[in-house]
Amino acid sequence: MPEQSAPKRRRIQRSPSPEYKLDDEASYEPYVPVAQRRQAKFAKLTSRGTEKAKATAGQEEQDEREDEEREEERRREKARKERTLLMEAQEVHERKAAEDSKKTDAEKTEEADAEILAAIASRKKLASDLELAQGVQYTEPFKTSWRPPKFVRERSPEEHQRLREKHHILVDGEDIPPPIDNFTDMKVPEVLVKFLKSKRITTPTPIQLQGIPTAFAGRDMIGIAFTGSGKTLAFCLPLIMFALEEEAKLPFVRGEGPVGIILCPSRELATQTYENVLTWTAALAPDGGGKYPQLNTLLCIGGISMSEQSHVLNKGLHIVVATPGRLIDMLEKKRFTFDNCRYLCMDEADRMIDLGFEDDVRNIMSFFKRQRQTLLFSATMPRKIQDFAQLSLVKPILVNVGRAGAANLDVLQVVEYVKQEAKMVYLLECLQKTPPPVIVFSENKNEVDDIQEYLLLKGIEAVAIHGSKSQEERQYAIKSFKSGQKDVMVASSVASKGLDFNDIQHVIIFSMPKEIEDYVHQIGRTGRSGKTGIATTFVNMNTAEQTLLDLKYLLMEAGQKVPPFLQSIEDPRAVQGGSLKGCPVCGGLGHGISNCPKLEDTQRRQMASHRMSDDRGGY
Ligand SMILES: Nc1ncnc2c1ncn2[C@@H]1O[C@H](COP(=O)(O)OP(=O)(O)OP(=O)(O)O)[C@@H](O)[C@H]1O
C-alpha cells in the first residue's frame, strides 16, 4: 500500500494563503471560526473557573475540617472546665452544708441578716444622678451668717453636754452647734417669739433647742424625736429665716426662688405644714405686726389646681411645701426652678427615702444647681435608714431625742384582746372612755367605710379618710374634724403620719398595723405637745405573732402595762439563744431583719436590682 502521509494530504487538500511560507509550517494554525473560537474560549474559561472553584472548595473543606477540630477542642476544653466548675460548686455546696449543719439557728439567722444588710448598704446614695455621674461631692457644710450669742459661744463643751443630757438629747457628728434653750437667744425675731407665746409655744422642745441652732448654722442634719414634739417648727423656722435674709438682700421678682423646699410624703401633711408656714410668715410681715418682708409660700401637691395659686407663682417665690409627684411635675414644666434653692427638708424622711419614694427624691435632687443644706426629720428612723441617709449628707449632725421609733411617753397605751366579730360593738363601748375628739384607725379602706357607716347609724358624728377618697372628701374630713364639727375621724394610715389635730383625747386602733412604726405614728396623734392621751388597740388571733412581740417590747420600753396574753408570747430568738437586738430595717424590737414585715419579697427583689444596677454603674 502506498504510504500516505497526512500532512501531505492536508497540503493538497488545503492551499496555503500566499503569505504563508513553508518554514511557517510549525506555527501554522488551522482556521477556526469566530463562533467556535468563542465557544472554545468560554469552555476553557469555564473549565479554569471550575478548577479554581474546585481548588477553593478543597481549601474550604480543609478550613472547615480545621475549624471543626478547633471547635471540638474548645468544646472539650470548656467541658473540662465546666466539669471542674461544677465539681467545685458541688464541693463548695457540700462544704457549706457541712458548715451550716454545725451552725445554730441563731447563727444562720444572723448570717441571713448580714446578707440583707449588705444589700441595703449597697444602695445608690441619695444624690442626684448628675452628681453621681459627675462624681460631684460636697465636703464642707453650708456657711450661714448666723452665730450663737457670745455668752453661748463662751460656754464650755461640758456645759453644752449637760444641757443636752438634761433634755435627753443624743447628738453625733463633727463640730456640733450648741443647744440653746430659749428662742430669743437663738436670735428668732422678737415679733415671732411673741406670736409663738400667744400659741402657748414658750420654750423650745428638746428637738428644737438642738435642731434649730444646728439648722441655723447651715448644717445637714437628721432629726429624730417622738411624735408631737415640735419637729415642724424646728425645720420650718430656719428656712423662714434664710428666706427673709435673701429677700432683704435683694427682693425676689417673678420667676425667682424658691430658697427652700419642704417635702412631705402625704398631701395632708404638706397642707398642714404649709398652713403653719403661712401663719408664721404672716406674723413676721408688716400686716401681722412685724417689720419683715412678706414671704411667698407655694403649696405644691397633687389633687389641687395650681392655677388657684397663680398669684403666688406670679411673684418671687420663697418657700415651697410639696409632695414629690406634683413637685417633679412643676419642675419638669419649668413653672419654677431650683436655680437658687439651697434648703431641702424631708418630713417623715424615713418614708420619703424608703423604697417607694427613693427615686423621686433623687429626681428632685437633680434639679438643684448647687450645694444644698439637707435635713431629714422623723419620729421613726431605723438605724439602717439613718446610715444610708448619712452617706448622702455633708458632715451631718444626728440629733436624737429618745430611741428612734420609741413611743411617746405621754400616751397611755392599752392593748385589748377583742374577737373579730365583737370589734364593732366594743368600739362603741370604747368611745365612752373619753370625750371627743377621737380617731379610729383601721388598716383596710373597706373597713374604714364600714366603721364610719356603723357609727353614723349609731348617731355618732363621724367622718372617714383614706387613700381612695377624693381630695375634696379628704379635705372636708380633716377640716370638719379639726374644727370640732365632727367628733370621730375614722382613718387608714394616711392620716397617721405627722397630722397634728387639736387635743385628740383618744386613739383607737381597730386593726393593729403590721409595722410597729405605723403603730407608733398612729398612737402619736394623741399626747402631743406635752399633753396626755390614751391609745386603745384591738388585737386578736388575726394579729401576727411577730407584730404582737414588737408591741410587747414597745410597751415594756415605754413602761406600760403588758396584758397577760402578750406576756405569754415567747420570743423565738430568745429560745434559740440569738441576739435580741431590734430590727435595723423597721426598728421593731420583737424580730430580726429576716422576719421584717417591711422587707416583703418584692422589696428584697428591688434591693437586689439596686445592687445590680449599682454594680453596673459603679456608684
Ligand atoms: N416649743 C413648743 N412648746 C409647746 N408646743 C409646741 C412647741 N413646738 C410645737 N408645739 C406644738 O406641738 C404640736 C405638735 O408639733 P408638730 O406637729 O411639729 O409635732 P411633730 O414632732 O412634727 O409630730 P409628728 O411626728 O407626729 O409629725 C403642734 O400643735 C405645735 O404647735
Automatic annotation (TrEMBL):
Domain Helicase C-terminal residue range list: 410-570
Biased composition (Basic and acidic residues): 72-110
Motif (Q motif): 181-209
Domain DEAD-box RNA helicase Q span(s) in chain numbering: 181-209
Keyword Transcription applies: no
Biased amino acid composition, Acidic residues: 60-71
Top-level EC class as recorded in UniProt: hydrolase
CDD domains assigned to the protein according to its UniProt record, in alphabetical order: SF2_C_DEAD (cd18787)
Entries under PROSITE patterns matching the protein: HELICASE_ATP_BIND_1 (PS51192), HELICASE_CTER (PS51194), Q_MOTIF (PS51195)
GO molecular function: ATP binding; hydrolase activity; RNA binding; RNA helicase activity; zinc ion binding
GO cellular component, one term: cytoplasm
Span list, region Disordered: 1-110, 600-619
Reactions performed catalytically: ATP + H2O = ADP + phosphate + H(+)
Assigned EC number: 3.6.4.13
Protein's name according to its UniProt entry: RNA helicase
